[in-house]
Every structure is written in structure tokens, then in C-alpha cells.
Amino acid sequence: MKNLSYAINGVLAVAIIILFILFFTSKKDTTDTPSLKFENDSTVSLPIAYVNIDSVLTHYNYAKEASDALMKKTESSRASISQKQKQVANEQQEFNRKLQNNAFLSQERAEQEYGRIQKLTADLEQMASRLDNELTMEQMKVNNQLADSVRTCIKEFNKTANYHIIFSNSGLDNILYAKDSYDITNKVVELLNKRHAAAPKN
């Protein structure tokens, strides 16, 4: 009976050793993605990464081009508004000068001129509002295009990278600390610029 017990224990011991060997000699993942592993029983490397959005906006060529175009459009709008403001101010000053010097032939003529200047002022306000709305819509369009291109790029990038989660980070908004190995910003920017360079230009 004791011999049978020894034999069973021996078989179990061999089975455990075989399972142990199979577990630790199994094929390892060959991708560059950090996998769940333990180093010196204290460090855990996870299949996650993050992209620094501030850096993307700084180094992504499309983002820089779109920002420059928006800046030029903003400056053009400001110049147009400024020119219109000067015109209205000059018209108001001229009206006040004529009014003080009794230069109008009649009260009716003065009221007509006053109405004309009021319309110029209203036109200026409408122009400023229209240009502001156009800039806002353009900014929203650019933001949506940027977000879409980044999402598309990351999906393509992750077909081979195989991360489980990719965070976006701006300053210290989402990630207070992470090892440099989790930062894939440069890789994403490189792919974004390659895709942008290959895209047909309007």
C-alpha cells in the first residue's frame, strides 16, 4: 500500500514538473508591445501607451499648416474689421463736425446722414460677427480633422503594436508619471507625417 502511495506521489511530482517546464518555456510574444511581466519581482510592464497631444500639434505637419492658415485668416479678418472701424469712426467724426458747424441744410438731411452712419455701425457689427463665426467654424473643422487623422493613424499603428490601451495626454492632464517606454508620441507623429505627405494635395 505504501509503495502504491509513493508511486502516485511520484507521478504527480513528475506531472507538476512537466507543467512547470511547459509554462515557462512557452513561445514568447515577439511584438514590441510591452507585455505583462515581472522584473526583479517589483516592476510590471503593461501593454499600454500614451501620446502627448501637445507634441503632436507641435510636430505634425498638417497641424502646423492648418494653424498657419488659421492665423493668416485671423489676421486678414482683423485687418478688414480694423479698416471698417476706421471708416465708421471717420464718418462719425465728420458727422459731428458738420452738426456742430450747422453744415446740414436741414434737420431732415442731418437725420438721413445720422441714419446712414448708424447703418454703417450695424454693418460693422454684423461683419465682425460673421468673420468670428467663420473662424470658429474653421477652427472646429480643423480640430475634427486633426482628431480624426490621429485616431485613424493610431488604429493603423496599433495593428502591429498591439497595445490594449493608448491614452492621450496634454501637459499633466491625464498622466502624472509614466516611464519613457510608454511614450509612443514620436512614432505616431512620424506615421502622421508620412500619411500627410502621401495624401493628395488640393
From TrEMBL:
It comes from the Bacteria. GO terms for molecular function: unfolded protein binding. One of its GO terms (cellular component) is cytosol. One of its GO terms (biological process) is protein stabilization. The keyword Glycoprotein does not apply. The chain crosses the membrane at residues 6-25. Residues 81-137 form a coiled coil. InterPro entries: Chaperone_Skp (IPR005632), Skp_dom_sf (IPR024930). Keywords: Coiled coil, Membrane, Signal, Transmembrane, Transmembrane helix. Belongs to the Skp family. This is Periplasmic chaperone for outer membrane proteins Skp. The lineage of its organism: Bacteria, Pseudomonadati, Bacteroidota, Bacteroidia, Bacteroidales.
